[in-house]
Amino acid sequence: MSGENLPQFRLPVADPDFVQNPYPLLAELRDSKPVFFDPDMNRVVLTRYADIGAVLRDKRFGRSALHRYSRDELGWPPPDPAQAQFDAFNGNHLLDSEPPKHTRLRSLVGLAFTPRRVEGLQTRIEAILAGQLRGLGQGGAFDLVADYAEPLPVTVIAELLGVPEEHRALLRPWSAAIVRLYEPSAGPQAQAEAERAVLEFSALLRDLSQQRRRQPQDDLITAFVQAEQEGDRLSEQELIDTCILLLNAGHEASVNGLAAGVLALLRDRDHWDALVEAAPREDSLPIFRRAIEELLRFDTPLPMFERIVLEPLELHGAALRPGDRVSLLYASGNRDPLKFTEPDTLNLGRDPNPHLTFGLGIHYCLGAPLARLELALSLRALCRALPGLRLANPDEPGHYTGGFVIRGLARLDVIG
């Protein structure tokens, strides 16, 4: 890729200080270098909402290019055998596919993963949350991430899919290992762990899908097995990769979004207290849904995505060719003052709130309705059960993980 005609800048994606608080630097870049070339990542980087939104809706950019070109034609190196299983999974699910494959997969998956199925989970999610909150905080400080944010989405997706309880403890470690490979700084150890996770998770799902073909149950794996449109069905491998994707995408946003959201609220006590006051009302869920939209905008759990160029084009004076990569800084676009009034201010009543957190265009997140429901119900239940919640260490409340592509708090110590 040529970075001619663009300013150059190395985005410090592996710098712990940047990962901890990327927003001051992102604000500087939006003003001084809204479009730049990063020679370390070898890609053009976009920081402004309008540019990011335009690329997400432009069919000349995609999540994959191998449906049109060979690796030689794109100038890409041969596949790395050290991550063959990860690459096979990544190339087979709907997030990283393009039409017509993407259209087919999304239609088939949509037959099973319906809004009605998601909304029907509310009672069960509330019951799970009640169990998690029972006794929480009575022993003093606890880690909101491990003790509250993490268990729910794993339990929900496991129940949705139909994963037996004895296997559920493996789901979070598998997901964490797989998504770590999306970070630009991932090395050999991360590759080995991701490969093992894909293999082990795939073996479990293969067994479960074969069981459901023989003995259908009321779960998502059965629904995927049975989903059919005009005589077409998901293959076994497509079913497996779709289930892995739902686990990874579904719970990473939920865990990281809730923890970062609670941190933001406890740093701005008036907002927390307002939600506590609203929480007991039976009609309060829309208030919490709106609050979640703002929290996902304010501190984006998935700060950076990428698109691949599919046709020769010019982007802000840079000549791009098929196979070139463009990084989209969702976290920056979500704080763009050209799109949002007072973007660095938390405004739980912000409406409309067209944040980028779940994407735009054909790759808009399929699991967004489930993540939104989980987050709203989780936050409301927490406000009801622990209205006096506060940070255990206000001066050093929590440290974000070493990743920037998927950014979340490693832990958040609070006192109930």
**Rough outline:** globular
The neighbouring-strand order within the major sheet is 1-2-10-7-3
**CATH class identity:** Mainly Alpha
In N-to-C order, the SSE pattern is HHEEHEHHHHHEHHHHHEEHHHEEEEHHEE
So how many helices?
18
Second rung of CATH, namely the architecture: Orthogonal Bundle
Please report the total strand number as a whole number.
12
Helix content: 40-55%
- The Cα radius of gyration reads 21 Å
Structural class: alpha+beta
Describe the structure.
By secondary structure, the protein is an alpha+beta fold. The protein has one domain (16-415): Orthogonal Bundle (Cytochrome p450), CATH 1.10.630. Helix content is 49%, strand content 9%. The chain contains 18 helices and 12 strands. The chain has helices at 16-20, 23-32, 49-57, 71-74, 84-90, 101-112, 115-119, 122-133, 144-149, 151-161, 171-179, 188-214, 220-226, 236-267, 269-278, 285-298, 330-333, 368-385; strands spanning 35-38, 43-46, 61-62, 141-143, 228-229, 232-233, 304-309, 313-315, 318-320, 325-329, 390-391, 413-415. Strands 1-2-10-7-3 form a 5-stranded mixed beta sheet. It has a 3-stranded antiparallel beta sheet with strand order 4-12-11. Strands 5-6 form a two-stranded antiparallel ribbon. α6 (101-112) packs across α13 (220-226), α11 (171-179) packs across α12 (188-214) and α16 (285-298) packs across α18.
